[in-house]
Amino acid sequence: MSTSHLLVVDDMHKSFAHNEVLRGVSLSCDKAEVVCVIGPSGSGKSTLLHCINHLEAPDSGTVYVNGELIGYEPRRGHLVSLKDRDTARQRRDIGMVFQRFNLFPHLTALQNVALAPRLTRGMSKSDAEEAGMEMLKRVGLENRRDSFARELSGGQQQRVAIARALAMEPKLILFDEPTSALDPELVGEVLKVMRDLAQQGMTMVVVTHELQFAREVGNTVVFMDDGVVVESGKPEEVLLSPKTERARLFISRLVGDNSER
């Protein structure tokens, strides 16, 4: 597929049993762009991210990252699922940061960051740890390299999770509400790391309720509701002058909730 976009999602559908979660979602993201996806709970935002990196297989629709079709190959006019190892190879280029960190509690910060490059890229222990230390420095945690994950605050654990994603040298990082599980006083330290990554040119798709972050850092804001993209545009357009009543109502409620923190 020839495209100028680093990420292209085209007409994605996904159902769980009789619940249609994604109903024809399409979006794109250029290199070094930050796309912020907002919307109420249950609108399909997290499922969208899981389908982009093929943790969930979409029922229909396609995802291209850097021109490569994710999870499938065309064969005789049809799309055929790739073998798991081939999909895993593609997934190396797509970092993922989850709500709940997903660190190994019995490993140190450095071990958590260095594990994936050793297992999936065949790096030696010393090379993986050297690269891991560079990533911990990028998120401001080089002094906690030997701390076990369970000894870290929530904000520190999420920063380690970001370092782990960076260690794979991804072309794209997906963030699934990375601050939603954090105490309010810890949110800022994670958002600062994400701001720094954006300034350094990392391509990111961020599912978030942090409207100030979306407005200041996002290049594009996508508002989803009930499994569809309702509005998409520049942050000032979507957040300050939404065109639909659904978006206006959601944003006004979220602004009210944030002002009460």
Structural summary, described in words:
- Helices cover 39% and strands 26% of the residues.
- The chain has 9 helices and 12 strands.
- The chain has a 6-stranded mixed beta sheet with strand order 8-9-10-3-11-12, sandwiched between helices.
- 43% of the residues are buried.
What is this structure, in a nutshell?
The chain has 261 residues and is α/β, with parallel strands linked by helices. The protein contains nine helices and twelve strands.
The pLDDT mean sits at 94
Q: Characterize the main sheet.
A: 6 strands, mixed
- C-alpha geometry: globular
Number of strands: 12
Structural Rg: 18 Å
| Widest β-sheet, arrangement of strands | 8-9-10-3-11-12
Q: Main attributes?
A:
26% strand, alpha/beta, 9 helices, 4-stranded antiparallel beta sheet, 261 residues, 39% helix
List the helices and strands and how they pair.
Blueprint: E1 7-16, E2 19-29, E3 34-38, H1 45-52, E4 60-65, E5 68-69, E6 72-75, E7 78-81, H2 84-91, E8 94-97, H3 109-121, H4 125-138, H5 154-167, E9 172-176, H6 184-199, E10 204-207, H7 211-217, E11 220-225, E12 228-233, H8 235-240, H9 245-259
Parallel strand pairs: 3-10, 3-11, 8-9, 9-10
Antiparallel strand pairs: 1-2, 1-4, 4-5, 6-7, 11-12
Helix pairs in contact: 3-4, 3-5, 4-5, 5-6
